[in-house]
């Protein structure tokens, strides 16, 4: 009787092949992704979730369990999180802004984006600046004094107040991890203003360059800004392109956005270099 591979053996062979491919993929990802990049992504996941499992982190980062274990141990030593059995938990009084700003860890790409964005402000304008790390980098770069800024970000408020810039904080519910205010009252107030320019961050862009939002509050704020500002600028690092999310700004609004990033993305958009960053100017209203 001739020997043959049974379905069980075929399944085992296929399972081993897939495991090898996954291991090779993780190894390649680990080579590309430094600890600092992984740390930032872990903190972003913890900003959106009270706790995350090791399995979630492995899938999100594409790295091995041993790498996740080392990263979590190092981050706990830095006081950035608390390790749990099978995962990690956010430290409640440790927001991403306290870590990034108080410890002066705004990345160079964010600074370059912020400098270019700040250069778009003119004397006497009414400006909206949204919450986020990149918009905070922008606030630090503003040199104009005779302007009025409306914001929902508390770190942005603090940075502008130190520069003696006239700034107004919207009211709403406090969002701890981003130190911002959100909610129906926030969007209701925002709807009553007409801005010369609006500068907002973003969770990412989909393949058609529509901005993505992490939640309904962020989604509403983006769309109101696009509708109520003569010019709206999205500030985003180049790694945020070609992403997916539940909340997507409609194309009839997204087409009016100007995008500022730290590096042009290959085969995406019509970016032109200004200063040390890149801008893609879209159509005017």
TrEMBL record:
Q: Which UniProt keywords apply?
A: Transcription, Transcription regulation
The cross-references to SMART domains, in alphabetical order and at most eight, read:
DeoRC, HTH_DEOR
**Which Pfam families is this protein grouped with?**
DeoRC, HTH_DeoR
What molecular function does GO assign, one term?
Answer: DNA-binding transcription factor activity
HTH deoR-type domain: from which residue to which, for each copy? 35-90
Record has Transcription regulation as a keyword: yes
> Sorted alphabetically, which InterPro entries does this protein's record hold?
ArsR-like_HTH, Carb_Metab_HTH_regulators, DeoR-like_C, DeoR_HTH, NagB/RpiA_transferase-like, WH-like_DNA-bd_sf, WH_DNA-bd_sf
User: Does the keyword Transferase belong to this entry?
Assistant: no
Residue spans crossing the bilayer: none
The domain of life is: Bacteria
| PANTHER family, alphabetized | AGA OPERON TRANSCRIPTIONAL REPRESSOR-RELATED, HTH-TYPE TRANSCRIPTIONAL REGULATOR SRLR-RELATED
Spell out the protein name for this chain: DeoR/GlpR transcriptional regulator
Which source organism? Clostridium porci
């Amino acid at each position: 009787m001739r020997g043959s591979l049974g379905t069980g053996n075929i399944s085992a062979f296929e399972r081993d092949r897939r495991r090898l491919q996954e291991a090779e993929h993780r190894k390649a990802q680990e080579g590309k992704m430094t600890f600092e990049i992984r740390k930032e992504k872990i903190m972003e996941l913890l900003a959106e979730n009270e706790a995350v499992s090791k399995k979630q982190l492995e899938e999100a980062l594409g790295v091995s369990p041993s790498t996740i274990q080392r990263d979590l141990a190092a981050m706990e030593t830095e006081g950035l999180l608390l390790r749990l059995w099978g995962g990690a938990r956010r430290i409640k009084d440790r927001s991403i802004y306290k870590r990034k700003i108080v410890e002066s860890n705004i990345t160079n790409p964010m600074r370059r984006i912020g400098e270019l964005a700040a250069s778009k402000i003119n004397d006497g304008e009414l400006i909206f600046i949204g919450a986020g790390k990149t918009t905070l980098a922008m606030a630090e770069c503003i040199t104009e004094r005779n302007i009025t800024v409306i914001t929902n970000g508390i770190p942005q408020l603090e940075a502008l107040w130190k520069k003696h810039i006239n700034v107004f904080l919207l009211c709403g519910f406090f969002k701890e991890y981003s130190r911002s205010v959100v909610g129906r009252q926030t969007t209701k107030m925002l709807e009553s203003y007409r801005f010369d320019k609006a500068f907002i961050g973003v969770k990412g862009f989909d393949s058609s360059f529509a901005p993505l939002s992490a939640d309904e509050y962020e989604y509403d704020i983006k769309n109101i800004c696009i509708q109520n500002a003569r010019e709206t600028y999205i500030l985003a690092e180049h790694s945020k392109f070609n992403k997916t999310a539940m909340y997507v700004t409609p194309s009839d609004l997204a087409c009016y956005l100007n995008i500022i990033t730290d590096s042009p993305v290959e085969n995406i958009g019509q970016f032109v270099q200004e200063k040390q960053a890149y801008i893609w100017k879209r159509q005017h209203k």
